[in-house]
Amino acid sequence: MRWVALLITLAGCVRVAAYQREYLAKPAMNPEAAPLEQKLDTHVQEYREGSMGGTGVGGGGCGCN
């Protein structure tokens, strides 16, 4: 029984070339979010902190302007 488990485990070990990794990577593992999601995250963080900066948009505070 141990040999069967060992063979199954070793069958899953495959060396992947560098140029093939982009096709095997899951989009969810990308550290850069989608542009719309990134914009929303930045917006939420700006109003949570009460400040804006570095995005080219003036204003800040509670967002009632």
How would you describe this structure to a colleague?
This protein has 65 residues and is mainly α. It is elongated and about 65 Å long. It has a domain at 30-54. It has helices at residues 2-11, 21-24, 35-49. The chain is built from three helices and no strands. The model has no long low-confidence stretch (mean pLDDT 75). The N and C termini lie far apart (70 Å). Helices cover 45% and strands 0% of the residues. The longest helix has 15 residues, at 35-49.
Summarize the structure.
Helix content is 45%, strand content 0%. The chain has 65 residues and is an all-alpha fold.
The best one-word shape is elongated
What series of H and E elements makes up the topology? HHH
Rg calc: 23 Å
Question: Helical region count?
Answer: 3
SS content category: mainly alpha
Proportion in helices: 40-55%
Tally of extended strands?
Answer: 0
**Unreliable stretches:** none
Distance between the termini: 70 Å
The major beta sheet can be summarized as: none
Q: What is the averaged pLDDT score?
A: 75
Q: What share of the residues does DSSP label as strand, in percent?
A: under 5%
